[in-house]
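ok, trying the design again with the full structure, not the truncated one.
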């Protein structure tokens, strides 16, 4: 290990900020002036560098391209009412990144590299916070193998990079989803719990087929019987039946969402009944038909809550409750926003103020 952690900064000569149309930000397209890059070789992480955002140069024999050792995180930085810069649960994202790294045979990163790295980069590019209410800086830390030999092996070298992407308040249009009964996203013993590129790769084609049929995304089911709900698209899934908040229990085929966990915790704080258990598709369809299901939605960092208004199951479209009656979802979105803004007390230590 290096004795002292230090981030070296090479500043961009000129900012690109004036070229950006902040009134029309679409997710993932615009990046701030700088990025953080850190290399792992000889068994440890060397000191990170912050450099102008730029293309990378890698060998065509790069093993991540061939065999997929590639992982990522996604979290957000916000400005609170005091104009301080805050992160939402960065340590939870760090833990998940490292859990993912272990499963993919990759080195873990230190808290310093992850949290200090994000903080330093944001301090440098702080002018890039969009000004509109609900907007944020989306943070994309990721890591991939950089060995340049195409024999199958665990890479000995890696790159860890952090990018910042200014994003507007994310509005999820009400979703029409199709229950997938042929393809699977993840299976027992696999990598479904890991935030790795491979899970996305395997979901693209089945999702495309659903989109061609007029749906926005899929509801993934278990790999054995296609009977139990797992996730929806790239979000965790929740519903409210008889005033109980219900979500599939975690397993190695379900991604442990930070938003999922935050919503469950707040719902319990509010005295609501919460169940984490196996949830069958049949149960959800039946509850939607007999009126006991009042809300169904996906959860994730990007949208926070994405309402589902239609579910296709075995070729039949079932209407889900309309948006008007979704009192829980509305209150949850507002509460999470108030927490980030600093309007209400942060009882769980979720808000991390970036030291200035
Ligand atoms: C990232 C992700 C989620 C949501 O996680 P959050 O921490 O809430 O953003 C859910 N499912 C999958 C497959 C994911 O990759």
């Amino acid at each position: 290990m290096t004795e002292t952690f230090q981030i070296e900064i090479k500043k961009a000569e000129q900012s690109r900020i004036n070229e950006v149309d902040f009134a029309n930000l679409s997710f993932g397209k615009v990046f701030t002036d700088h990025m953080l890059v850190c290399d792992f070789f000889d068994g440890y992480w060397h000191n990170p560098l912050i450099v102008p955002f730029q293309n990378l140069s890698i060998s065509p024999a790069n093993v991540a391209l061939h065999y997929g050792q590639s992982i990522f995180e996604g979290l957000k930085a916000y400005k609170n009412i005091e104009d301080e810069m805050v992160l939402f649960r960065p340590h939870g994202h760090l833990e998940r990144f490292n859990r993912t790294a272990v499963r993919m045979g990759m080195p873990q990163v230190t808290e310093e590299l992850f949290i200090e790295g994000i903080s330093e980069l944001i301090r440098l590019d702080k002018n890039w916070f969009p000004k509109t209410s609900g907007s944020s800086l989306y943070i994309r830390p990721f890591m991939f193998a950089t060995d340049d030999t195409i024999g199958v092996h665990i890479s000995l070298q890696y790159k860890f990079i952090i990018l910042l992407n200014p994003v507007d308040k994310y509005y999820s249009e009400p979703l029409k989803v199709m229950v997938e009964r042929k393809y699977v996203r993840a299976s027992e013993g696999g990598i479904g719990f890991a935030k790795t590129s491979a899970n996305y790769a395997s979901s693209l084609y089945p999702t495309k087929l659903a989109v061609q049929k007029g749906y926005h995304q899929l509801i993934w089911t278990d790999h054995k019987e296609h009977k139990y709900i797992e996730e929806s698209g790239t979000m965790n899934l929740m519903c409210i039946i008889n005033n109980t908040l219900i979500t599939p229990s975690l397993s190695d085929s379900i991604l442990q969402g930070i938003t999922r966990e935050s919503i469950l915790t707040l719902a319990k704080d509010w005295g609501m009944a919460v169940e984490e258990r196996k949830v069958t598709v049949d149960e959800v369809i039946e509850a939607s038909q007999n009126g006991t299901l009042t809300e169904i939605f996906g959860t994730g960092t990007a949208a926070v809550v994405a309402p589902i208004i239609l579910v296709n199951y075995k070729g039949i479209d079932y209407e889900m409750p309309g948006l008007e009656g979704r009192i829980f979802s509305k209150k949850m979105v507002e509460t999470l926003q108030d927490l980030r803004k600093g309007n209400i007390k942060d009882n769980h230590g979720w808000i991390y103020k970036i030291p200035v």
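Keeping the full-length input from now on. The chain has two domains: 8-167, 175-325.
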